[in-house]
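Protein modeling request. Please complete all fields; requests missing the sequence field cannot be processed.
Requester role: graduate student
Desired output: 3D structure, token encoding
Chains: 1
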Amino acid sequence: MKMEDNELRQAMAVLDTYNAQLEALNRQVRLLQVSLEDATRARESFKALADAEEGDEILIPVGASSFVPAKVTGKKKAIVGIGNRFSAEKDMDEAVTYMDKMVNDVSEALRSAIGTLNEIEAMATELTMTIQNEYRNRQLAMQ
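Delivered output (143 residues):
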């Protein structure tokens, strides 16, 4: 199928749009992965605290694969980030439940972003092949 010049220009513009969308989605996926790791770490820490007895020593993650030892007190409360730089004190079981929901929500958003990324990637690949074929055909026609 031969493309007219304006069709080829439009196809290249669409490909540029796809590439910009792919860049944005890749950034979003990376951010969601970091959020998922954070929420999972928080959930696991809350679970460890909820299961611990007063006086037990546990390791609390502080980031960068680093931990500090801490002794569990009788107070089973946590300060939980609830969004937009707000935090709330919750019972440990509530904190675990909240983090479970956050992990599920972020996982779903990540799956959705990856699905969209894969769809756009497939369309971009197909369009790239079409454009390359058109250029190849034009070069052959000039010979």
